[in-house]
Amino acid sequence: MAWTGDPVWLADVLRAEGVATVEYPGWRERGHGDFGNVWGVVAHHTGASGSPGPAMIANGISGLAGPLSQIHLARNGVATVVAVGVAWHAGQGAWPGLPTNNANFHTIGIEAENNGTEGWSAAQYWAYVKCCAAICRKLGYGADRVIGHKEWAGAAQGKWDPGGIDMNAFRRDIQNQINGGAKPVPPPPNQIDEMAKVAAGWIGARRTKGELKTPDGKGRYAEFERGYIYWHPDTGARPVPLNIFETWAGLGWEAGPLGYPTKHHAVVDKVGDIQAFQHGVIYRRYGQPGFWVHGVIGDSWFQRGAENSPLGWPTSNEYDYDGGKMQDFENDSLAWNPSGAVRITRKKD
Questions:
Q1: 3-7, 140-144, 176-180: least confidently modelled range
Q2: φ, ψ dihedrals at 348, nearest 5°
Q3: What CA–CA distances, in Å, run from 293 to 269, 315, 318, 328?
Q4: Residue 187 pLDDT more than 80?
Q5: pTM for this one?
Q6: At what angle do helices 167-179 and 122-139 cross, to 10 degrees?
Q7: Contact 68, 138 (CB under 8 A)
Q8: N or C: which terminus of the chain carries fewer CB neighbours within 10 A?
């Protein structure tokens, strides 16, 4: 007989499966009402590599009250149980055996901290497998009761999570875990190699044999035809196109004020490239020098609309001005002084 009611056993079965498990305060009382019969699991990714954390999954976001799933799975493989009642995780969709547009009252949602394109570390992937296996084993079901959000809501909502996971292969690994025949956990995949696959459409052929250490000893990088891929344990692997790399190199690479890249670059068609780093963002128009924005001036510029604001793209880095700092943009300048004020100044000739 199917389990009916709230899955009050979640934390216990995850631990029994060997998953490092945290109980978020108040999880036993949190939920949008009580479950009906629990059919199985819906697998998700959060859409971001560094957030949201368990607190946001538990408490919700603007316009959507938490909990947003029952379990949050961190990149390091730690599962946090945030709710035992119904969570708003599935939305509209359909799948055989589930009532149309009503999976929330019949499935346990797992939100894995991942943007869907960065790849899956061995620690996170195999913890994901074990979480699903533990729940299915408790329910008395096989791995066919685990579906991806993209399978449930792809047609109805255009969802694509969990990105980068072949759900059929995922279910085979879950079934192996349920059967007690799971293969040994392989070593973590090389993240630079994995990112090279993601960026293969533009980055070109590899020029570096293997990878090289960064001077700080913490990171790694590899050179490709049209860019580089840098890895750091805090940021993961990120590709940097040559257009951005030249500007970053002029500032001292990762040892300079920007640090390591934290996101993929964005392309403004026929205009230029943009990429975020640990301590600022590089903007570079094609055929022109690149510049970086950060701090109070950067915040003010972003609040005004960044490159789409009347100020336009940056045309200088910050420089000393009247006891503070100034930065020039295409149509004006922003100045800062130690009082914290930022003002638009008339652009100098």
A1: 3-7
A2: -75, 150
A3: 21, 10, 8, 10
A4: no
A5: 0.56
A6: 60
A7: no
A8: C
